[in-house]
Amino acid sequence: MDAVAGPDRMLNPATRLLWRSNNCLQLELGDRAVVVDGPAARSVRRLAGRRSPTDTGPATGTAVLRALADAGFLWPRPAPDGEDRLTPPVPRLAAELAALSARRGEGAAEVLSARRFTSVLVHGSGRAGPHVAALLAAAGVGRVSLREPGPVRLHHGVPGGVLPGDEGRSLAAATADAVLRAAPETATETLPPDEPADLVVLAEDKPADPDHRDVLHRQRRAHLVVQLAAGHGVVGPLVIPGLSSCLRCADLHRLDRDPAWTALAVQLSVRRTRRAPGEVALESVIAGLATQQALAFLDGEQPAAIDGTLEQHPPDWRIRRRSWPVHPDCDCQSGR
């Protein structure tokens, strides 16, 4: 048998194998599917260890198998004394690795391993902040912490985030506990000032503080906004200083549409004396969406929240993207 179809190859662990007939297979990987029949189907069945008693013909179809290997459906089988690219850095991440392989092929393990060396700092007292922190840790991010001096309020409690029993505790400490419940190996200490985090998540249910956003921009620190309000949730923009539109760009676009925006923004920035409204189901969707965007950035992909926001307004089930391009009156591209 050719090396492509020989014992040095195996099915990608994320590949689903379905029999259409005795000599015809359907392979599914993520949102892709291919149908294989004839000699190549027999080879795939043997690679999967599912050879049938009637499967006595030669296992050929080398060109098809090579194409399957190039498309990520087949992987090299690890040598007994070599590095196993199918083993995640932490056993609990096996499902994460299999899912990543559907998009990243043989590079999935490298992507997942790289997450261990990334760090995310969450700012703000928004309900979604601790939840996003725990989800990022569960996905393999090596260091996740929250910087917020305030206490846990009862409304902060959500499945996967801080608990109702944390009420009154430091929100930062309760978030660290939520992170460690999700991923015990995660570092939760905040990095020193001379070691900035790879991404800052601004989880405030109000407009970002102008002084804080300006500091992040001057320090060239990527930051992602996550906001919840009564009836809708917003993820983005994800700002990469000097390369994308910034939060001031979004404010200038709002001002173009509404001359009263500056006055409204000042009032919206005042911290609420009562708990912020928000549905737990919507919060869970927004926290998951924010985590996806953060991971896409950390993994070197192109998040949809760059130069835009992702929004959901129940009962509409759709996630809508709103564009926020660089504003011509903003100096964010000038290196300020």
Automatic annotation (TrEMBL):
Looking up SUPFAM superfamilies in the UniProt record yields: Activating enzymes of the ubiquitin-like proteins
Q: Which InterPro entries match?
A: Ubiquitin-activating_enz
**What is the name attached to this protein's record?**
Thiamine biosynthesis protein ThiF
Q: Which organism is it from?
A: Jatrophihabitans cynanchi
At the highest ranks, the source species' classification is:
Bacteria, Bacillati, Actinomycetota, Actinomycetes, Jatrophihabitantales
